[in-house]
Amino acid sequence: MKGVISINIKIFHIFLLAGLISGIFFALNYYQTVNPVVVEFKLQLFIPPGMENAYSKLGTVQVAQKELVLPAAGAYDVVLIGNCTLYVQTDDKLLENPRTLTVTNRGIRIIILNQTTDVTVKFIPQQRIDEIPALLLILGGVVGYAVRVFKFE
Amino acid sequence: MESLKIIGEEIKSNLQLILVLLASPIVVQYILWKYLPEIKGVSAGSEVSSALRSTMKDYLINATSNTEFFAKVASAQLSSLFETVSKVHLVVFLIGGLLAAFLITEPIYRGNIINDIAIMGKRKTLLSRFLFMITYGLFLILSTGVALWGVSKLVGLSLESRFLFSMLLMSFASFIAGSLLVTFLSTISREPVIPLAVLFIAGFLSTVTPNLNSLILPFEELTYFLWNPKLTNLTAYVYGGVILYISLAIASIKSFEGGDFY
């Protein structure tokens, strides 16, 4: 008498399934890691509403800097909301008002000059279609076939 | 080759073994996703202040001149790679031992390995069971390699192909090392508790001190040695570990051939 649960499964299917599951696992983790990063800089200098232009003539401006580590390397779109001059420094260059950003060293430094409103900087990762899950599935199929060649079934 | 089909049937009818086979690649991948993206010891600072319009350029120059932060992030990325390599070796070692427990220890314990021995003799029994483990090990290691390549690209590490190759080869060796340990112990003790207990104790001990780590998981050091022989000094413990596993391989064949499994 076999066990209560009897599964009719071939070893080939086990490998294929293992490849499929690890492919799905990869994709899930991938999309969990590759997330937009949002950085906010509140205006701390008091500027009366409607007086921004007059105020900037006085000569005092707000500046800010922040160091942060992006979750993933690669290309990002940079979206700037607010009124300021944005500099982004990566390990090899300094970009002025960038629209896109490509990093390998994930550390970046944001420098904001001339800030007259609250500023929000968004780093949105560019959609990258990854081939790894497909490779994992193919790998499962190939090794599963090898098991068949070895006459395990 | 009727005999290999018996092993195939045995694998297919063992639900626990199937679950281990399915879960192992995910466990290794979990290690990759957990440890590789980590950035340790880097504090991301933030500063808001006001400046005169005329000194704004100075502020910019001042802020950008400090590149220590980028060096810190780069070295943190690299050290998380080393930590991941170490963890992968450990996990693969344990998975190898677990598979050997299912494919060699359990049949010895239950006594049904005698069917195999009657059909094809002792040495071929051991070899054909190891053939399946090697095949699965290849799948595990290659899927680890594919995932490692993908994750490291994502976290900003560009791996040299030589590093990837030595990593895969040596973690395969760790996989075999774990299965050899369990095989040898189960041919002596003929029951599953002692081999598995020793396997997990060895795995635990390897995390305690660097010397024990080189002795129990010598292939971790060898990964770096194969990658760049000039930068890595092999200690006596690494040689000791390699000799240990070679003698384990010979000893398990000998003791399997010498043992009675009725």
Structure in words:
The complex is a heterodimer of chains A (153) and B (262). By secondary structure, chain A is α+β, with helices and mostly antiparallel strands. Chain A folds into two domains: 7-34 and 128-153, no CATH class; 36-127, Sandwich (Jelly Rolls), CATH 2.60.120. In chain A, 30% of the residues lie in helices and 33% in strands. In chain A, the strands form two sheets. Chain A has a four-stranded antiparallel β-sheet, with no helix packed on it. Chain B has one domain (2-43, 79-258). In chain B, helix 4 (68-110) packs antiparallel against helix 6, helix 4 runs parallel beside helix 7 (161-189) and helix 9 (210-216) packs across helix 10. Strand 2 of chain A pairs antiparallel with strand 1 of chain B.
Number of domains of chain A: 2
Largest interface: A-B, 67 and 62 residues
Q: Mean pLDDT of chain B, nearest integer?
A: 89
Helix vs. strand class of chain A: alpha+beta
Number of helices of chain B: 11
Question: What CATH architecture label of the largest domain in chain A applies?
Answer: Sandwich
Compute the separation of the termini of chain A in Å.
22 Å
The averaged pLDDT of chain A comes out at 84
Q: State the share of residues found in helices of chain B, binned by percent.
A: over 70%
Shape of chain B: elongated
**Number of domain units of chain B:** 1
**Percent helix among the residues of chain A?**
25-40%
Provide the CATH topology of the largest domain in chain A. Answer: Jelly Rolls
Q: Strand portion of chain A, in percent? A: 25-35%
Report the total helices of chain A: 3
Broad CATH class of the largest domain in chain A:
Mainly Beta
Q: What is the succession of H and E elements of chain A?
A: HEHEEEEEEEH
Largest sheet of chain A: 4 strands, antiparallel
